[in-house]
Predict the structure of Amino acid ABC transporter permease.
Amino acid sequence: MMAVLSGVLSLFTLSDGYLAAMRAYPSQGRVLSLTDVPQERSTQTLSALMNSVAQARTVVVRSDVLVSPVEGSVEGYRLGVYGDVAAHPDEMAFRYQGADVLDAKLLSRLLQSDADATLGLDRVSADMVASLPSARFGARLVVVQLDALVRGSGTVNGDYRIIGLDDAGFRSLVQQVSEASGVDADRLTSPLHGSSTEDSFMRLIVLVLLVVAAGALMLLSVLGAFQEFSRLGVHLLLGWSRLGYAARIYRSLLVCSLVVMVVPFAVTLWGMEGFPLTVQLAVAGLAPGVMVVGIVLAASALGSLVLLSVRPVAAIRNRVSKKALLVVIAVVYVLASAGLVAGAHALDAPMNEVSKLGQVSTRWSRYDSLRLLYKDSRGTNHTESSGLSGDHMREIYDWYTSIEGKDGVYIANTRHFDADLLAQWKGLYEQVPEQAFWYFITSPNYLKDQGFDLDPDAAARAEAGERMFLIPDTMDTAEQERMRGYLTETSMKHKDWTSSIHTTFMDTGKIGFATYHPSTPLFTWSDDLSQPAETTDPVILVATGADMTPFEAESLGATGLTNSYVKLSEAAAQRYLAAIYLAKYQLEDNNPIYRPASDFIAGLRKSLTEFIQLFGGVALLAALFQLVGMATLCRIYAATYRETIAVKRLLGYSLMGIFAPAFVMVAAMSAMSILAAVLIGSTAGIAATAMMLVFQLILLTVQSRTLSSGQVQAMIKSE
């Protein structure tokens, strides 16, 4: 157990070191700090910075904290890079534990790739150009192009390191950025902020478990030495030395500690994903094994001191206080039980999160195979200014309406409007809902396949071009009225947009409403884990090609997990994305790529899996420690009263009667632990103490039977 714990502790230590190395990268260069840049100046500021870097053939790197989507802690860094990295190979090299993490060649490959390309897994696995080493349960690094980092973060503000400029060149760059941003040049070179990102909570938990395990080993070693007094006396009569006897009884423990040195080494190598085996990493992996050997040596030394300090006569007569030993055993068990409750309570929130995340992962797995638009290539009618031309949007609309309602062809787009956003809408619209709500845009066949009881009349009206909205009947009357007013106003505004796409609704302007009773959970398609994975009461637009406004019709070509509209099954994708079918709608030159939903949540799923593995492993180790301690204490009790146990067993006493103190202690302490867990409101504590009560009673029954039989056999042989 200590070997595993020391390996995990080493892994967390290496992870923290990796984070520190990321934070310091690149180690050379001058810092340009952009703060309080107005949003309207963001584009020109970034352009000025990138133009200056390009002209000077230098490199700029911005480092943003990478926050875990699971529990919100710092899990690494996302770097944005731009410039002539090939001209600065030494400055751009990043090494950790003797391994190459980044180099100029890899960064050049990134900069020559698509705009959304990444080094290391971010969210979408298809964007990853190459993987980067990472620490399991800890630090990971993602590198993107600088403009993609700014676009994704939504701000140009941040700290930038400029590589390869002399003093004059740096002053010139600062001046150009200052003019573009409107921020004084002195402020750009004098950052007024800092950060500390070390997250040592899990390392603290593992360290506490390791300290407790080491203390328990030393205590049990000392108690075990007292139990050896009678046998030591016999060996002393036979001519053994006390040191020789100590070496005999602790030799197997020392040999075992040497053997298990491979365990923390294996844990370290397993946890440092993508890192090659280097001398530095090998040393880091072997160090915790050496620490375990040191702990075992210390425990053996303490036990040996007890054996060396006893007088021969006392050893021969087995003069040891049984009551004192039992008091020590009882105290240790009480402390262990208290530790179990405290530990379970500390893990209460994380384990609740694990349970919730497990459900999220399970729900996502139902939609893994559905394919979403990842990207399409520039065709002959692709414009530079807007990204999509009117002709291309119409082609996508025509393609979709040709397959609308077919098996495996769906529309599903969801958005959550919170109270803050609704407050901002007041004054923009005549009527604004007051309660936060989910808004779903879904095709009729999608709702049916999700088990939603869609009224055939509502579906028919939507297919005829009437814009049909479904409002949950649990919404109060006044809120329903506000919702109808808002949906009507926005629909009519969107209807009048200029567009190359024309629908039936744009001619008729007919809007219909119906209520439904919430009962069917509908997937929210949200990658925000703070939002529920399912909801039963969204406001739903029954979307068809006929009742769309230009807003929905032109969004059919949207890409990504949360933005995309069209979802295809694998069979539908094979059929309707074939070049011969796309050619009917002039889309063959665009080569649209639809990828499974699982590709879009690869980073999220990796974080979920590691979080569940981590806390599940810690909980398992804590329970195992309690069981091992219980078994050891039971053996000490049996050794202390071996003669009494053997006699009572021969006289026909039941195991419950012989080991009554142990059974009473387990039952009483477990009851008190459960009560304590109830009083502090710890769900994990109640579950852990209840399960441990069952396991301990089973283990105690097995141990008592085995030990009592052994004592009887030993007494018979001695006679």
The first strand starts at residue 30 and ends at 34. DSSP finds 30 helices and 21 strands in the chain. Residues 194-199, 383-387 have pLDDT under 50 and may be disordered.
